[in-house]
Write a structure and sequence with these properties.
Length: 252
């Protein structure tokens, strides 16, 4: 169990807020941080009254990525305050719910669709983080974190493998987007290629679309333009649900 105190956690939040402000990304709302001992992932931010609260898992408190997590969630809050289309909850809910209803998606398909939207939202948010992170140590830490996201073998579960394919695309696109994909990250490509090979012949082209889309995605402040781009992306995710990407014989 972490020994980190509430005071230390608050100081970590103050440190992150200061770094955001110093680089021109001032968060004006009141922000607090809480620990959820039952949370299975690192953390998330939510609106609470007139302010925001960042929920952090217990195990994240001991992670070297705690500072990066706080900055990432503050970037979400910053984009929300800036009313960027990527963080307009009504717009996102309308598009996601519309596709779920129109295509009759099952609950698990709706969850995967939401996960894939989160990858797009996160890659846009991390544009802020990569402007703040400048030291070689910080960049190395992020590279190592993203490398752990790349799946090497499909599971045999079609929806889970579809989700993993897009997650692989997110991890690799995140580094390519910032010109950080080089010989030090070659293992990510090797693992991803093994994954795609086992997923079958259609997986490569599908991966290329998602990787290219995420690498070039723009947080366009013009709502109709962003809506159109997001709709195209989500449609391709639904197409992926209907596409047989597994190399079934290889997995038996």
């Amino acid at each position: 169990m972490s020994r980190i105190s509430d005071t230390t956690l608050t100081r970590s939040l103050d440190w992150a807020l200061d770094r955001m402000e110093n680089d021109g990304f001032t968060v004006r709302a009141r922000v607090s941080v809480q620990v959820d001992p039952d949370l299975e992932f690192m953390g998330y931010a939510k609106k609470e009254g007139e302010g925001h609260v960042i929920i952090v898992s217990s195990w994240a408190l001991d992670s070297e990525m705690l500072g990066g997590l706080l900055l990432h969630e503050l970037a979400h809050i910053y984009y929300t305050e800036q009313h960027m289309p990527s963080h307009q909850s009504e717009l996102i809910r309308e598009l996601l719910n519309g596709i779920v209803i129109r295509d009759g998606l099952k609950e698990i398909e709706a969850r995967v669709l939401m996960d894939c939207f989160n990858h797009l939202q996160n890659i846009l948010v991390d544009d802020v983080i990569f402007k703040i992170f400048r030291s070689a140590r910080e960049i190395k830490m992020v590279r190592r974190f993203l490398a752990e996201w790349v799946a090497e073998r499909p599971t045999g579960d079609h929806l889970l493998d579809a989700s993993l394919l897009v997650r692989n695309a997110f991890a690799i696109a995140s580094l390519k987007r910032r010109n950080l994909f080089d010989k030090d990250t070659e293992e990510m490509s090797v693992k991803n290629q093994r994954f795609l090979t086992l997923c079958g012949p259609k997986a490569q082209d599908t991966f290329v679309f998602f990787e290219s889309f995420l690498e070039r995605a723009q947080n366009d402040p013009h709502v109709p333009t962003f809506r159109s781009s997001l709709s195209d992306y989500l449609e391709r995710v639904v197409d992926l649900f209907r596409q047989e990407i597994r190399g079934i014989e290889d997995l038996r």
